[in-house]
TrEMBL record, chains A, B:
Lineage of the species this protein comes from: Bacteria, Pseudomonadati, Pseudomonadota, Alphaproteobacteria, Hyphomicrobiales
Family assignment from sequence similarity: In the C-terminal section; belongs to the class-I pyridoxal-phosphate-dependent aminotransferase family.
Pfam family of the protein (one): GntR
SMART domains associated with the record: HTH_GNTR
Protein name: 8-amino-7-oxononanoate synthase
Length: 471, 471
């Protein structure tokens, strides 16, 4: 389309818009005929067709084959507006997700679980998108292979080899996200009424997800070296759980890392009780150096490793993965076809593979680790000034699990935070035993704006329980 | 990076590759230091860093922060190859999907459920991809809104208004695919042991999906005007089903369309038995003119409408949708966050919205309908010459549900077809009652290559049961 034609087409579009706005054309009415309106406007019929097509693509008019164009049914402007997140909803494991995902642009989100846009490898992703525009048609329109794009699975196989995990491309299944990877595994291994162990505290969405599976969730207290092994052994004996879901490296929310000795004893206990483990190492790329991997120690016998690229590459390009025993993967492929007709978009896999293969990606990770290290130090100091104390100093990552000042309730503070424009992540959304009311998870990457601390201080003042009596 | 630097970098990359291939550098060994190798190669240290980064992005070497680059663990070439689809697997409702998705490039796929690449709106999609490359960083890296991109939901609201379905953007939830839309609804409404009605025959994946939900599946015979209402009423009385899953327009596999009177009586029966209906109108855009919609008649009271863009726009850009009562959508959003941490990629929604808004999209649909009409006529004629007779002449779409010649078993023919390079869709994968052994679903858009009919004739000859005695 030339600019001139665009100008003429634009004039026809504007003329019809005026008729619609002014009521000269009402819903259901037929638009002027193409030849007639072309004569009226002094343009060619093809210009009118072009204009009508644009208006049809916007949904304002509709074509009826063989009969011309008609004004579409009226849609109230209210029907087209976005819903506000519901502030009054219960503070449950879905609370942080829903408040974070639907937060308006003015909200500050120290409670959310991802990095700010400007911390992501935007240049490399944009190069991958430009590469996509030059790729073959099949990638843009066809379903992909049932296990997902081979190029990305090959990349993962090489990466796993570097971590000491020996797997073939056959043993890797791409999924639409890390969460969906765990969901598929749950559908494969769990039946309603089964028991699943999680860390206490653990990533809140493990609980939300496991509730959908109608299983009993048992929490094992988490220590700075991993799960409390005495409690873990007791839980195995008492509850005979089918599955344990955990993060080994940079545990969410605590930022702790599984110690080698704990990892070994955990696997010995798991073998003795025929326990399967899902190791969600979604934060692995943020570690300064690799820590022990259950999947590597175990050789993918009873450990299933999952992950995604949401934390270091892009959360918008939805793509996760599962690596597991070949027979389990075969069953998971069937499950994924039945429930999603395949895995992530082949386009998503291509964008991820393209970004990972960009020479800049390693530098991005290096820079990210350094930036996070500074941000942890800075946020830790500012939080201490407010009387908020980190539980440990994590080796990497962006979460700080913090104890609030005596008498400060995290849920009350989170509610007060919303009123001050803050999305916070109160402790008990992470805690199966609901024993973390005095804790809060902070995302240091979302706390470089000083307004976070001002709003937090106001929220703390606003959420204080008034003293029982004031003489 | 300038071309010259690329050439120098390339030389360093090649030199290291040779060392790796020749065994001069073994897995775990440290690579030459950057300064040292720069001197050896007569290039700058930054050129060596660039080369090492490229090799690291390929997974051949790994950086250890502060300690240099090391050769990555060896990965056997066999570990990087793709699995062949398993030919010997049982012909069940997953058979066609798995064979179609993983078919090699030389296979012909008259049994698959999608259009060939060259029938899709490739130009418009490519324009949308180029638009994506110019968009803001947030779209490329951040999670999207919990219900999915508002722009696409607004488009859908206008389209629904045109179909007589009155819904607001709040009532629309984007999902990763049409299949996943039904899966979410199943998780919301169904409990193990519930009964679900489907058409007999019905889209095979409805069965595969419902089996995952551990529900009892009851089939109701499908007539050229919709479900057999006497059998439907009897099934309601006998089984008290919770849900009915169907396609109203261009039913899969038969290509039939629900008649207005059948639609009305169906809804009356549903109301009397408190039945919820999922209306999967995934083929709606292929209709020559719109047929009755249960969702429009019912006003989204007990009907949930789902769909996707896989059949007319792209199957690679994974995106489906649900439109339903506001309270149900709110629950489905929670379920989708818990099980996938959100819906389709915001990038997918942007590509879909961009393509739909392209003025060429309506013309694409018009051309597609004309092309399909010709292809149905042509394939119908050629199939008849082989003794294969369409059950009805569909008004639109790409499926022909055909009766095979007397004594020809569809499953045996499908197995013989694989040996001849054909993926076929044998009748019983669509039939809950397993009464369609004499039927086959053909996709006319995948049958323009005359080799399809040659291979089909050979497969028919090869799958014939030998006569009991030959004098």
């Amino acid at each position: 389309m030339t600019d001139e034609a665009g100008g003429r087409t634009g004039a026809v579009v504007t003329a019809i818009r005026r008729k619609l706005a002014g009521g000269a054309l009402m819903p259901g009415e037929r638009l002027p005929s193409i030849r007639g309106f072309a004569a009226t406007m002094g343009v060619s019929p093809s210009t009118v067709v072009e204009a009508y097509d644009r208006l049809a693509a916007e949904g304002l008019i509709r074509a009826r084959p063989g009969s011309g164009f008609y004004v579409a049914g009226a849609v109230s402007p209210l029907a087209l507006t976005e819903a506000e997140p519901r502030r009054e909803r219960a503070i449950d494991p879905l609370w942080v997700s829903r408040q974070s995902l639907d937060a308006g642009p003015d909200m500050l989100k120290p409670g959310c679980g991802w990095l700010p846009v400007e911390w992501m490898p935007n240049g490399a992703i944009r190069r991958a998108v430009r590469g996509l525009a030059r790729t073959g048609d099949a990638l843009l329109t066809e379903y992909g292979a049932a296990r997902g794009a081979l190029s990305l699975r090959r990349h993962l196989v090489r990466r796993f080899a570097g971590e000491g995990i020996d797997a073939s491309a056959d043993q890797v299944l791409l999924a639409a996200s890390g969460t969906q990877a765990i969901d598929l595994i749950g559908r494969f291994l769990l039946r309603p009424g089964d028991t699943v162990l999680v860390d206490d505290p653990c990533y809140f969405n493990f609980q939300a997800l496991l509730r959908v599976h109608a299983v009993r969730i048992v929490g094992v207290p988490y220590t700075p070296a991993g799960p409390d092994l005495t409690a873990f052994a007791a839980a195995l004996a008492e509850h005979r759980p089918r599955l344990y879901v955990t993060n080994s490296a940079l545990h969410n929310p605590t930022g702790a890392t599984l110690a080698p000795g704990t990892a070994h004893r955990l696997l010995t206990l798991a073998a003795a009780h025929d326990l399967t483990i899902v190791e969600d190492d979604i934060f692995a790329d943020l570690e300064p150096e690799p820590s022990p991997r259950l999947a590597a120690l175990d050789g993918l016998n009873r450990v299933i490793r999952i992950g995604s690229f949401s934390k270091t590459l892009s959360a918008s390009i939805r793509c996760g993965f599962i690596v597991a025993r070949p027979d389990w993967i075969e069953a998971l492929v069937d499950l994924q076809v039945a429930t999603s007709f395949g895995g992530p978009s082949p386009i998503a896999a291509e964008l991820i593979a393209g970004t990972l293969a960009d020479g800049s990606y390693r530098k991005h990770l290096d820079a990210l680790r350094r930036r996070l290290s500074r941000a942890r130090r800075e946020a830790g100091g500012r939080l201490k000034a407010l009387g908020i104390a980190p539980w440990i100093e994590p080796r990497g990552g962006f979460t700080l699990w913090c104890r609030l000042p005596e008498g400060c309730d995290a849920a009350a503070l989170a509610r007060a935070g919303l009123r001050e424009g803050l999305v916070l992540a109160p402790g008990n959304v992470f805690s199966v035993s609901q024993t973390a009311a005095g804790f809060m998870r902070f995302n240091v990457a979302q706390m470089t704006d000083p307004r976070v601390y001002e709003a937090l201080a106001r929220a703390m003042a606003g959420s204080e329980t008034p003293p029982a009596s004031s003489p």
